[in-house]
Design goal:
This is SDR family oxidoreductase. It comes from Streptomyces guryensis. This protein is an alpha/beta fold. The chain contains eight helices and six strands; from the N terminus they run H-E-H-E-H-E-H-E-H-H-E-H-H-E. The chain has one domain: Rossmann fold (3-Layer(aba) Sandwich). The two termini are 29 Å apart. Bound molecules: NADP nicotinamide-adenine-dinucleotide phosphate (NAP). The site of NADP nicotinamide-adenine-dinucleotide phosphate (NAP) has 31 residues, from helix 1, strand 1 and helix 4.
Length: 246
């Protein structure tokens, strides 16, 4: 599980731990990752979680992760690539393209490369019949702030999901993406959103509330379960009705 030290990834790791699955927790900041592992261990008796500090946008992380996952000597049935970040906006309207390029590079590095490195690095270890889950966003459909790098990076994952599903289908491996709307209680927005923006996002939902990390965790767990085994090559929008699915 990449991006496991906060928000959606941490809740998802906990959901798997509750099912007695061993979970490798991956993120860059050691202290926060260790804290997340402790939290899961204290709330789930017997939880088998292993923190691993890695920047998943670095190519070298693939081999390190493969070695660590291989050393666990357990079947690797699920790979959830939740690492992601919203880059600083690069729009300045003065004709200087530097900030825009930085925004797009950072958006792709954090949201696309982190998934590509994890998936391509771990594929040799994945069991036939396993599941890959990537994390998109409602921004892939609606656009995002700045010059739109974040939304574009998330949309790129949709194409990657379809490619993976076709490529790995013969091995019975499913590949799907979850595209959440606004999910509260995460660190994605640097703590909290301005109150007016949060109110507006909640008003857009049909259910009248923000998503919770546990809502997204439940769907990730389902996609990796036997019950979700025939679901592949899908982008699952999970947004409380903020936008109408097609
Ligand atoms: N919250 C929302 O409203 C929302 C909506 C739509 C989509 N999403 C997507 O859902 C996913 C989880 O978001 P969240 O809200 O739970 O965010 P979050 O609370 O900020 O957690 C992001 C996680 O990713 C890790 N991470 C970031 N870059 C990484 C890298 N290069 N290598 C390894 N780990 C990295 C972070 O830890 P370190 O910083 O320590 O590495 C952290 O564990 C993201 O992909 C996000 O884009 C979230």
């Amino acid at each position: 599980m990449t991006g496991a030290s906060a928000g959606i990834g941490k809740a998802t790791a906990k959901r798997f731990a509750e099912n007695d699955d061993k979970v490798i927790l991956i993120a860059r900041q050691e202290k926060r990752l260790a804290q997340a592992a402790r939290e899961i261990e204290s709330s789930v008796p017997g939880a088998d979680v292993e923190p691993l500090v890695l920047d998943m946008s670095d190519a070298e992380s693939a081999g390190i992760l493969r070695d660590r996952a291989g050393a666990a000597e357990l079947p690797l049935g699920g790979l959830l690539c939740c690492a992601g970040a919203v880059p600083a906006p690069g729009d300045n309207d003065d004709g200087d393209v530097g900030p825009a390029l930085t925004e797009w590079q950072e958006a792709y590095r954090s949201n696309v490369m982190t998934s590509v490195v994890a998936v391509e690095g771990l594929l040799p270890l994945m069991t036939d019949g396993g599941s890959i889950v990537l994390y998109s966003s409602i921004a892939a459909y609606r656009g995002s702030g700045g010059t739109g790098g974040y939304g574009a990076a998330k949309a790129a994952l949709h194409s990657y999901v379809h490619t993976l599903a076709t490529r790995l289908g013969p091995r019975g491996i499913s590949a799907n993406a979850i595209a959440p709307g606004y999910v509260a209680d995460t660190d994605l927005f640097g703590g909290s959103l301005p109150a007016a923006r949060e109110t507006m996002l909640v008003r857009q939902t049909a259910l009248g509330r923000a998503g919770a990390p546990a809502d997204v965790a439940e769907l990730g767990f389902y996609l990796c379960s036997k019950a979700g085994g025939y679901l592949t090559s899908q982008i699952l929008q999970l947004n409380g009705g903020s936008s109408h699915g097609v």
